[in-house]
Each structure stands twice: as structure tokens, then as C-alpha cells.
Design a protein that fits this description.
mainly beta; 5-stranded antiparallel sheet; Immunoglobulin-like; 3% helix; 3-stranded antiparallel sheet
């Protein structure tokens, strides 16, 4: 995999426990050798995107909508991309999602100041916490813009 690029949009609402977003992920594949996820199998060759959020509203791969009911699409913190949706060369994945704010600084923090009544959001986006905020390839060997 090469030429990984992200465009991330977030919708922040006052007083919310959650926030909405969209990750547009582009990457190049030299060939399509990934496997499809199989329960109980060695799935180390499956292509997956990391995400530990609340909800996936929609998933599109190369302009095709992936059915949310696809078996084993989102397990634990991994979104497995079906091999049949991938192509050699440039691939585009669009994920509309909802995530939870955190209170332990390990993700996207929401805070309401009792003194001024204002709401604040912040994140340190440590590498290990990015997938809590939005879907991405949270893997140290994959660098992106």
C-alpha cells in the first residue's frame, strides 16, 4: 500500500456526548491480494481500517456502497474491506461515522467549564488514539497526508 491520504470532516454539536464525521481515505494498491475476513481463520492478510467509534453510518469503497449487514464487516476496532471492492491502483473509501467523546484524554475530549459555561473540545491525537476519533489506517508502517 502507498500514497495514503485522508480528508477528515467532523460535525461537533453543543452539549453532545458524541460527534459525527466523515473519513475520505485514498490509497494505492500494487495488487489486490488481500483476503476476506473469515471467522476463526488467520486474517492477517485482510485489508482493514482501524476504528473504535460508536457507529458506522455508511461505507463506500470505490463508489460502491458496502451493505452494513455484510457479515463480519466491523469487528472489535477493525473495519474489514471486502476484497471484491478493491482495485489495483488508486482506491477511495468513504466512511460516515459517529464517535463518542472521551473523558480520559485518549481520543477527542469534550469539556464544559462550570465557571464560564462554555464548551471546549480538544485532542492530543497520540498515534495510538487516532482510531478512537475517526477511521484510518492506524498502523506505524503506513504514513499519510
Amino acid at each position: 500500500m502507498s500514497k495514503v491520504n485522508y480528508v477528515v470532516s467532523l460535525g461537533l454539536l453543543k452539549g453532545g456526548k458524541t460527534f459525527n464525521g466523515r473519513s475520505l481515505i485514498e490509497f494505492n494498491l500494487a495488487n489486490v491480494q488481500s483476503k476476506d475476513y473469515e471467522e476463526g481463520a488467520d486474517n492477517s492478510e485482510c485489508l482493514f481500517i482501524d476504528f473504535k467509534g460508536k457507529l458506522i453510518r455508511s461505507l463506500q469503497v470505490n463508489g460502491r456502497t458496502v451493505d452494513k449487514d455484510t457479515k463480519n464487516l466491523w469487528l472489535s476496532h477493525r473495519i474489514f474491506i471486502p476484497r471484491s471492492y478493491l482495485i489495483k491502483g488508486k482506491n477511495t473509501v468513504i466512511i460516515d461515522f459517529e464517535s463518542n467523546y472521551v473523558t480520559d484524554c485518549q481520543g477527542f475530549q469534550h469539556y464544559k467549564d462550570d465557571k464560564d459555561g462554555q464548551e471546549y473540545v480538544y485532542t492530543e491525537l497520540e498515534p495510538d488514539y487516532c482510531h478512537i476519533c475517526f477511521p484510518l489506517f492506524d498502523q506505524p508502517d503506513l504514513k499519510a497526508t
